[in-house]
Sequence to fold (484 residues):
Amino acid sequence: MTTAKATLKDGRGMEFVITSDPPAGGMKKTYFTPDRSSVVQFYHDQSTGNDPQRLARLEAILTKYNPTIPESQGGARGVTQVAADYFMKLFCWPTSIVVKPEVGIVAPTYPSSYFFATGQFQGKEKEGRWFSSPKLRKYLPKEELGTWINYLKLCILMARAVRRLHQAGLAHSDLSSRNVLVDPSLGLSVVIDIDSLVVPGLYPPDVLGTPGYIAPEVLATQHLTLRDPNRKHPSAQTDQHALAVLMYEYLLYRHPLGGPKVNSTVSAEEDNRLSFGEKALFVEHPTDNSNRPLDLLIPYTVLGPLLSDLFARTFVKGLHAPNDRPGAIEWERGLVKTWDMLYPCPNPSCTHQWFILHDLSKVRCPFCGTKLPGTIPILKLRKETRPGQWMQDGQLVVYNNISLFPWHAFGNIFPGEEADRTPQAYCVFYGGQWLLINQNLSSLTSPGGNRVPSGQAVALTDGAQIRLSQEPHGRIAEVQLVKN
Fold:
């Protein structure tokens, strides 16, 4: 093993292993450290690496924009140790700048779960396209594919990561299945290629993006000069488009714009430029089905009303109107609330195993058609908007052993990066009835007004109103029993 030493900006040295054919992307080549815990990456074009503006951008990314280091240690404003530890798992954030022998960066190696562990692609990175393309999914071992609930989970993490970037005034500029690695076997995602983040007005984008994820307005104006005021550049708004494309792909295994409509017969390149740019059309457009694939059997509306609305706002209203696209924080909130509507499919042969139970008039799995047996409790969660006035602001579809968390019990808690994830109660079907078992709720109150101590249960009967907490912001759960 031949090694060389890189000199970091702070004067430290770091060894890396020399290879004749290092992994390379569009802008950088990559070398591993001897213990493979980090990578040293050098820019192909050293004039790019030596650009003072790029070095200033890297310095800002490592410090004042860095969500993986607490503010007390030089990281982004407002970042606590808890938040830093959380976002360390969602980003592969650079840790140092290399100044010799060439300009580059040091970044952590992706966790092993982001490399295929088995099958013919063992050792290769888990780029998202392997999991969102029906053709490619066929080549993957079953244990790598995961179940559908894990795709919803990784979408939540992806939206949360992008929300954190946008919250700091940053844009990734190249969100794609190549730059967001996923592990559906565990429901994890990690955003990579952080060194090219865009800061509007300070640090311009390096690239247009990745084909299939470039926003239509960027593709439609790429022929204009860089300084033309009508040219559209990668930004938070184009991230919003790319994020929605990724989530549509992961949840429905197809591209939202990749339909059969032909927009040019001059060349495949021209047709592609128009179909994903100026003339882009959602494959599930409500009034124009000219781009709808014939084999599209599962509509996006199976994802429930919240995600359906977000996809419609992105790909119908906002496809050519960037200001109308929902932000990453809206996706994060919509995904979290949709998570509470998940239900396990009882069919062991179902390809998805989970689905969103939102249409109570058709209580069946939309993916395999299996009808659900028995009775299903729905907890309608209400918060007090003013004394004595309660408004529904969520619901929880109950299945055996589902847990309730602090954000279910209290209306002022959101399950973000710093949320307490201690289970507060859980639901079981026991003795022919559904029960809510208290674990950590200090003032759980039965419909009759009696306190329910930890370890005790309250029955989930139709119409029952259960006070989850008597403390400020404590919610009421109203029970609705859905019978098949």
Notes: The CA atoms of residues 20 and 31 lie 10 Å apart.
